[in-house]
Amino acid sequence: MEIHQLLRLIGRIGAGVDETSTGRAAADAARHALVARGAQAVGPLLRVLTDEDPPVDWTEAAALLRRIGEPALRPLAAVIAAAPTPTAAVRAGWTFSGLELHSPTAYAPALAHPHPRVREAAAHALQQRGPAALPAARLLLPLLADPVAEVRAGAGWALADAGPGVLPLLREVRRARAPAGVRRTALELLAAVGGPAALDARDAAAVRRLIRARAPGEVPEPMHLCGPWFALPTGDLPAVLDAFGLSGAERVTMRLGASAWRHDQHSGAAHGACARMYVSPVLDGWTLVFGTATGEAHRPAGEPPGGAVLRRCTALSRRFGTAHWYGARCADDWSAWCFAERGEVVRFYDATYPEQTAGARHPAEPADALPHEAAFADGAFADVDALVAEAFLASYEAVTRDLGIAGPRTAALVAGRASVNPLALGPATRAEGAAVLALTACGRTFGHPPGALRV
């Protein structure tokens, strides 16, 4: 049967023309036949993939090209390099990243392709494979010196996601006569993938020198918010570390500290979310402490969720006069905050547990509804087209943010009115002192969580 006839059989199912068991069986047989044609089927499938109005759903063509594997690699690279439309480029890149290959080293020609989009796509494809990409790790090393920043970054991410198995290769690069930029990147990756234990004394000293070189004059950047943080009106770093029971403080860049907090909130490692805390420099008069201390992470059985936070804020306010706690999550609309003054909690709110709300409304809070009151009812968009609903919600969030109405990440808006909004950090933010990363009681027992961090 001709290739166009096989595609037509698959298209009948996609269009709902023949959804009988016989029709579905015929479509499956057509898919197997197209994969069996291998290189012969690649051209027709690529035409479907890049067609703005294809006769067969483009995802069918993408899945078949992925199954065909290596014969589709070079043709897809050509499409990525000279895609007729942005849509075609995206589709080709998605297909390219999931090709079924005998070995990840089959991406070698793409990693050395003259077009940077292809090199970047190949690095991304290896990153998608995680530790399975380790056999191709050495092929990524030249890309660490690529003239295009996106390609260099992609190679670094792929090496980091290859996991601990890449550490011997990175140590080899550190001792080789590689360009200075490549050796520096290898050092950052060693620290990120293996943690402090992966560094010998010479490299550990080099990381500290790198941080000392980058930290002075570092411009604050907006942070990705996902998790809890405290705000204290003090510049007494030793007192802050003592108040949270932190030790082993290491000076870091603000970028590294923010990266650690973000990483830890999504860590799947045991005690990954409560092993360390990032203490910021003094930002517009406030020291921010990001993370979960051991006391909040492991509260006594039966204690209300807010109990540990209330105790912590009470103790902090006795010591520093004022203590704020905030919480926000990137996966949903959760927001929470607590304000304590001179040893007394004056306001506590958690959108997940509104029944625990305590104290009078704070002047920094939204004037109308709190987050749990402002949410849309379940099923509010059940009869609305998905794209329309998505566009509306995006516009709604923008308006609530601009007008200060309760909604997603309300805690950040409250923080901006009462202390410092981490989302609004930037060149205008006054930064004094040093940023540090320090271990909690859990961290002293279990060590730093593994994973890549940005320096």
UniProtKB/TrEMBL annotation:
<dbReference type="InterPro" id="IPR011989">
    <property type="entry name" value="ARM-like"/>
</dbReference>
<protein>
    <recommendedName>
        <fullName>HEAT repeat domain-containing protein</fullName>
    </recommendedName>
</protein>
<dbReference type="InterPro" id="IPR016024">
    <property type="entry name" value="ARM-type_fold"/>
</dbReference>
